Amino acid sequence: MFCLLCLLFLLLGISRYLISFPPDSFKQISHYNGEKKEIIGFIAAEPDVRMDGVRYILKVQEFEKGGRVRGKVYFKYNLYPRFNYGDKLKIKCSLRTPEPIETDEGRDFRYDMYLARYRVFSLCREPVIEKIGEEEGNMILRGIFSLKRVVAERINKLWHEPHASFMAGLLYGYRGGLGSLNELFSRTGVTHIVAISGYNITIIATIFITICLNLYIPRKKAFWVISVGIILFVLFAGASASVVRAGIMGIIVLLAKQVGRMSGVGNVMILTCVLMCFQNPFVLIWDAGFQLSFISTLGLVYLTPSIEKYFIRVPEFLSLRESLVSTLSAITATLPLILFQFGRLSVVAPIVNILILWILPILMALGFFAVMATFVFNPLAQILAWLSWLGLSYIIVVVKWFAELEFAAVDLQVPWWGMVVMYIFLGVIIFQTNKKL
Q1: Chain Cα centroid distance, residue 120
Q2: Where does 22-137 sit in CATH, by number?
Q3: Cα of 416 vs its chain's centroid, Å
Q4: What is the pLDDT of residues 78-90, one digit of tens each?
Q5: Whole-model pTM over 0.85
Q6: What is the largest CA-CA distance in the chain?
Q7: pLDDT tens-digit series, residues 249-293
Q8: Which residue, among 339, 342, 412, 288, has the nearest Cα to 103 in the 3D structure?
Q9: Residue spans per domain, the chain
Q10: Residues 145-167, buried b or exposed e (16+ Cβ, 10 A)?
């Protein structure tokens, strides 16, 4: 019976994956890939601002003088003029089918599947754009993204680059303006510090819990207030797979507390994974952020008890022991996947993480209050920004120093079967170690 259920769920999963691809019909914009067309639609996602331009996703509304067609197109445009979520555009461009791209390392980057995560199956090349309207799309998202632009402007006034983008990364996961810092973070294994995780969700939940307690909001109503707050933050942060994962897990844990049935972390992880894959089956295989987010969390939960006994002599000053054990657990858990996906091993990652993780909560708090202070008393905001600038500079100096070491990172690519073998070996070690505890 168990085998039949497994087979049934496997078939359902495959079916769900396959039907996510658009049918090759005249009603889908992807049907016209290879042709030059004129389309009208609105910006349907938050613009992806980078150093070399802005990436947009356009939801098609009209096609070639009033014709109706469904689908989305992806296009790159200059930094200026800048378009926002909800702007209605008329675009003349050549539609193309996304194809895999060969990277500098000789590997194929599945660009087609990368875009499929966003339900995009058409590229808009050489676009000629005319803005013809505004305020399309979801009203709530328009408000959230407008607030985000205001926050970004305040951050840019308080800090110069790359500190401004660094602070934006700490607060809501922005990575567009980091430039060369992205490579330095990658070489030293600290890219995760500018990625939203469960830690950020915990901070958001704590803030709303404090507000509810001070306002004497009943427990049942407080649950809805906190849940809505988490959802809004997930949207504010861009709703990437890792952010959504952290948000769903946070809400599930709150719901378990609400009904008085605290579930195990494993059950919460499985339920979260099922919900996300049901909504978007592409993230399971083609979203590295989704994979790293889940595996690092599993490492913190199941690997930490296996190794923490070896670090009893490490002092607890500034949470040094906790940072070391957590870092090693997350690095060990994600190492096979990183070697398969990116082919790079950061040798200095444990040391660099220990040196900088202790200051991150302080910087996040200073940055948050500095931005809030700009709405009330700007001199206070300047003082808080200067204090946080010292911490940001400290991290940048540490990361640069270690990244410049010749042995900081080693290029080491493993095939998919090598990754599977490594995880089986790791799973056996965790099982045997926890069995003895």
Answers
A1: 18
A2: 2.40.50
A3: 23
A4: 888 889 999 999 9
A5: no
A6: 73
A7: 777 777 776 666 655 667 777 777 888 888 788 888 888 878 888
A8: 342
A9: 22-137, 145-436
A10: beebeebbebbeebbeebbbbbb
